[in-house]
Structure formats: C-alpha cells, structure tokens
Write a structure and sequence with these properties.
- The complex is a heterodimer of chains A (115) and B (109).
- By secondary structure, chain A is mainly beta.
- Helices cover 0% and strands 56% of the residues of chain A.
- In chain A, a hairpin with a 6-residue loop joins strand 4 and strand 5.
- The radius of gyration of chain A is 14 Å and the shape is globular.
- Chain B has a 5-stranded mixed sheet, with no helix packed on it. A 4-stranded antiparallel sheet of chain B has the order 2-7-6-5, with no helix packed on it.
- The chains are: A mainly beta (115), B mainly beta (109).
- Chains A and B meet through strand 5, strand 9 and strand 10 of A and strand 3 and strand 4 of B.
C-alpha cells in the first residue's frame, strides 16, 4: 500500500466552527507532514512530525493544531479560522533515513473553504 | 537548504523529450536534488532524486552537472498527461525543505 489518504476531500466551515482534517498512511513511514497550498502557489510546509513527535512548526497560528495519535495517523484540528485560511491542505509521509532518500508521498488533499 | 531557480513555464510537443532545468548554485555536498510534479488539483508526486550521479527510473532521467550547481529533468517521450507543475527541491532531507515556484510544463498535441 503506497497511498496516503485524506478525509474529507472538501470541507466548508464557518469562522466559529471546529473541524478536523485526517490523514492516514500504512507504509511504515515515521515522518508525516502538513502543507498548505493556495491557488497557483507552491505548497508551504506547516508542521512535521517525526516518530510521532512534533519536530517542526513553521510559525503556524494556534488556530491550527496538529496531532499525531500514532505512527499511521495525522490530524489537523481547526478552530476559529479566517477566510484567508481557505486553501488546499496536503498531508505527506516519508521514511526517516539518514543521508537522503526520504522522498515524500502526498495525499490528494482537503479543499477547505472558510466562510 | 539551497535555493533553486526554475523557468516559470515551458512548452513541449507530445512525443518529444521534455528537458526541465533547475539551477541550485548554492548546493552543499550533502544535499540531494529531488524532483516532484503536481498535476492540477492533485497532491505532488515524487519523480526522481540524485546526489552526484545521473539517475534514471521508469518516469524520468535526472542529469546533474559535475559541479552540482544545476540539473535537468528529462521526460523522454512527453504525453499530454505530463502537463503539470514540476518542482526541483534541494535538501538534505526532502521533507523539511521548501518548494519553489516550479515550472509549469504544457505538453501540446
């Protein structure tokens, strides 16, 4: 299984809502990532988990809260978002080999619209 | 991580080779060159990576110059389905690196 799955595919939420994005992989990867991608822009790294511990937070606002319940699952909890947070949210996973060859496998993304 | 420079767009005729350049003049000795592509509205897809030597797989070939300051991704027989944004990333660990603006490749019939 070389697939990263993300749910839901689409999400519309109001600024007062609380929602969660989910990501799952069964490739035994020990690194998992959240990216945000605005239209016609490259993906921007948000968070990195390594061995289920948060290793990188790219100064993301606290209204985004990541969680890694186990090595296969990654969640992104959303609360009090702003319309400018509307974007494609991508999850990825990779091995954690030293010395390279840590190519990432990406999910299809969740298209988020904040009203 | 080293910064990369790619042309914003390129066209290629269907069936011809597509050669996508990437400049990474500040690359350091332990940094790999990774290539990904993103077809419209899908997640990025890993294509190939290399350190010093040229590499080939079922999708593409990667040519890295001897001084490692630039590289070229070659799609040998481009098809319409290869139309995508192609990203060149230089990093010790691809997962903790930054995507640049990439090259939008349009394959035309």
């Amino acid at each position: 299984d070389t697939e990263v799955t993300q749910t839901p595919k689409h999400l519309v939420m109001g600024m007062t809502n609380k929602k969660s994005l989910k990501c799952e992989q069964h490739m035994g990867h020990r690194a998992m990532y959240w990216y945000k991608q605005k239209a016609k822009k490259p993906p921007e790294l948000m968070f990195v988990y390594s061995y289920e511990k948060l290793s990188i937070n790219e100064s993301v606002p606290s209204r985004f809260s990541p969680e890694c319940p186990n090595s296969s699952l990654l969640n992104l909890h959303l609360h009090a978002l702003q319309p400018e947070d509307s974007a494609l949210y991508l999850c990825a996973s990779s091995q954690e080999r030293r010395g390279g060859r840590n190519e990432q496998f990406f999910g299809p993304g969740t298209r988020l619209t904040v009203l | 991580d080293a910064k990369t420079t790619q042309p914003p767009s390129m066209d290629c005729a269907e069936g011809r080779a597509a050669n996508l350049p990437c400049n990474h003049s500040t690359i350091s000795g332990n940094e790999y060159v990774y290539w990904y592509r993103q077809i419209h509205s899908q997640g990025p897809q890993y294509i190939i990576h290399g350190l010093k030597n040229n590499e080939t797989n079922e999708m593409a070939s990667l040519i890295i110059t001897e001084d490692r300051k630039s590289s070229t991704l070659i799609l040998p027989h481009a098809t319409l389905r290869d139309t995508a944004v192609y990203y060149c990333i230089v990093s010790v660990n691809a997962g903790k690196s930054t995507f640049g603006d990439g090259t939008t490749l349009t394959v035309k019939p």
